[in-house]
Amino acid sequence: MNFTFDTELDSFREQVRDFVRSHLPEHIGRRMRQKSFAPDDLHTAEWHGILAKKGWSVPAWPEEYGGTGWSALKQFVFNDECAALDAPVFPWGPRDMVGPVIYTFGSDYLKETYLPMIREGRYYWCQGFSEPGSGSDLASLRTTAVRDGDRYRVNGQKIWTSGAAVARYGFFLVKTDTRCKPQQGISFLIIDMKAPGVTVRPIAQIDGDDHLCEVFLDDVEVPLENLVGEEGKGWTYAKYLLDHERTGSSYIFWNKRELAKAREIAESEHRCGQPVMAMEPFRRRFAGVEAELTALEWSVLRELAGEKTRWNATAVASSLKVRGAQLQQKITDLQMEALGRKGLRYIAPEEMVDFPATALWPDYFVGKSSVALITRAATIYGGTVQIQRSLIARLAFGV
Amino acid sequence: MDFNLSEEQQLLVDSATRFMADHYTLEGRRRHLEQGSAFNSERWQRIADMGWLMLNVPEELGGLESPFVDTCLLMRCLGKTLCWEPVLTSGVWAASILARLSDSPAAGDALTAIAGGELRVAGLWSGFDSETGVDFPISANVDGRGNWHLSGQVPMVVDGPTADTLLVPAVAEESGEPLLLLVDIDGKGVMLDRYVLIDGTPAADIRFAGCTVPPAGCIATGEDVRTLLDVAADRARLACIAEAVGIMEACLDLTADYIKNRRQFGQPIGNFQALQHTLADMFIAAHESTSMLFYGLSKLESSAGERGAAISAAMLVVDRALKEITEQGIQLHGGYGVTDEYAISHYHKRGLVLRQWLGSADFHCDRFMSERH
Ligand SMILES: Cc1cc2nc3c(=O)[nH]c(=O)nc-3n(C[C@H](O)[C@H](O)[C@H](O)COP(=O)(O)OP(=O)(O)OC[C@H]3O[C@@H](n4cnc5c(N)ncnc54)[C@H](O)[C@@H]3O)c2cc1C
Question: What is the pTM (predicted TM-score) of this model?
Fold first, then answer.
């Protein structure tokens, strides 16, 4: 065993830090400091254009498609530094989900058409899996794709499709065969969100934003080439994609950065003449969360360094997801507690960008309550904590 | 002991429940929020016509002077439907203060006007760095003719933007004596920065510069002012607790309904034991919160120490219960829980306001410990 990072990674960390410091546009950093989630798609695209020029936009991909060939730990360092310096996270939909599915299972046509544009971060992509009647029970989905000559005709409805209103493309799970067992008739399709018959309706969210959408598919014609891999294998690909990034759903980088923000708030805000950070009950809660976050980070590192354990790998990934999601909520709770009554003020999404900071309402206050509100979803999306617990029990222990 | 409602109390609750169901629906709430929480005086007059603004007004001033439990029963009904009117700030908090100032004609006039729905009053209680309820951030300078000149600012005055008159605790610059003033919000030298809270409640940062109050506007002076304001803050807290209990009861009902009707894996999700247990825990938390409401009410007329300890203990239990119930309520709704279209998200946001507004859990923990032990 060896518990230290390669020293080579220290100098790499410096290199990443210098690059982000000198290349991240200030307006993007400021926006990220406020909102922490779903930044303007334009900002994300701008930043990823910058990363792409450097050759750093899709580190995990095979080198032939633009990957860097970095080890998992080196990628960890890269993501850690980017997040700490408020760089937008590359939208995981295209980079971590559809991209790997395309280069692993897709045709040459799909690789040539879509991988370069994903690598350059040219467009936003959305993920159309969930449906109104199929959330936790995803396999029961009902959107159909029927072959008609050289195309599919797609009909049905998706929901919770994050960013569908700004997305140029979406990757969808659809039923190409309704007669067989649910999982077997599912296929994986890339759909042009501008195609006739695609209607997107934003959903008003708890935090006043409307990033989540409903997507109605009404006789949408999709060329057969947009089928990824084989018909009826969509479920296998979806599972591959969810398993592919085992540590991403721990939100480790987000959690670290937001805890740092909680500290900044608690050191700046005062209650009864002393900084909140100096108040004993708050200190203790903060320490408890920081210790848990350290545990999460080391669990992630164990996974990335390839520790062999007796446990089912998916069960381990689920444990990281459960803890990571809970920590997101505990950390936004800390931010709200540190802000005290200040955290109760509502700032509409459109007011945030140009919010005039004052001594009473400093920059660090902006957007925090919105983030705390939408972070209730952390234990819901991508498989709820209840579903993850059932998975752990089944996969790790066979119960 | 008897924890059942009297006939009159049952009537109050029944009529409030009917009224709320008619006038304060989720669709109505969403429309109201879309319109920037604009105040509607017809709606307010309807509330006044129900007699609810008279509960804390003495009989000789046209009020009902009801036992405080009646106010709490009402607030519980308001909480259930998330009624957004400033009943608590004007009808409970301000009225509770003014009702104890029988010597002041200005206070009496204000009370009569509150009871009739003609006047709304908001209080400038404290700055952000204080949680004690009242910390006198405004200073007042008296001139030769007895006029008071106010300076200073108070952030986040809840229901400030819809008030006509401000209740202003201040410190006299020369004597250092506490004062209580009534200030016309439209008067010269009163500046408001308006916004809304996450639950849509209007609030404002209010600043005085060049604001003059005539001698009659000073309705109380001396150390008694502190006591008066402390008692009133605890009454307001109990009203919040009652509202919170209403919120919890509503969340239980709508979450139970939801998991009975939502189907996944070919069955109602309420069949899954994980969700049954969560719902059961939510029920336990709501039940103990109701107990704390009654316990707090039982100590309202006790000594300051006993009253403070009891109400802070109640606030502590309610803080945890609101967190558990509204957060798990969202969780059990899945994605629908984080939308504006489902009521549970609105209850959660109101819950967050109630958990901070009149002192954080840490503050109440300290107050409970120091009064009790
Ligand atoms: C912010 C956000 C972003 C999202 N982004 C996307 C996206 O981009 N693309 C996409 O396709 N989807 C997305 N989703 C959808 C998300 O994956 C689903 O919300 C999630 O799978 C839960 O499904 P549901 O909302 O239908 O809840 P339901 O499945 O109806 O669950 C409701 C409750 O029942 C519980 N439950 C259900 N089944 C069981 C069981 N067997 N045992 C115990 N408890 C159970 C759940 O844990 C939950 O508490 C997003 C959701 C959110 C909130």
Answer: 0.97
For residue A275, what is the nearest residue in chain B, using CA coordinates?
Answer: B129
Residue A360 touches chain B, beta carbons under 8 Å: yes
Measuring CA to CA, which residue among B104, B115, B105 is closest to residue B53? Answer: B115
* Residue range of the domain that includes A202: 125-233
Nearest by CB to residue A376, choosing from B198, B266, B330, is B330
Active site residue A337: no
Q: Residues A12-24: pLDDT tens digits?
A: 999 999 999 999 9
Q: How confident is the model at residue A92 (pLDDT cuts 50, 70, 90)?
A: confident
Q: Which helix (H) or strand (E) holds B166?
A: strand B165-172
Indicate which residue of A120, A225, A245, A264 is catalytic. Answer: A245
Is residue B22 pLDDT above 70, yes or no? yes
Rounded CA separation B201/B357 (Å): 12
CA atoms within 13 A on the CB side of B253: 10
Selection from A161, A249, A250, A252 nearest residue A198 by Cα: A161
Mark yes or no for CB contact B335/A279 under 8 Å. no
**In which residue are the tokens 């140009």 written?**
A354
Read off the pLDDT of residues B129-158 as tens digits, 9 standing for 90 and up. Answer: 887 667 888 999 999 999 999 999 999 999
Q: Whose CA is nearest to atom 38 of ligand 1?
A: A136
- Give the C-alpha separation, B37 to B45, whole Å: 17
CA dist B195 → A348, A351, B199, B205, B284 (Å): 10, 12, 11, 8, 36
CATH code, residues B225-372: 1.20.140.10
Is B265 in Cβ contact with A137 (below 8 Å)? yes
In a domain, A119, yes or no: no
| pLDDT value, residue A32 | 84
| Other CB atoms within 10 A of residue B123 CB | 27
pLDDT at residue number A40? 64
**Cβ pair B98, B112 in contact under 8 A:** no
Q: For residue A265, what is the domain's CATH number?
A: 1.20.140.10
Instruction: Quote the tokens at residue A116.
Output: 């370069």
Find the helix or strand (DSSP H, E) in which B264 lies.
strand B263-264
Tell me, what DSSP letter sits at residue A91?
Answer: P
d(CA B278, CA B255): 10
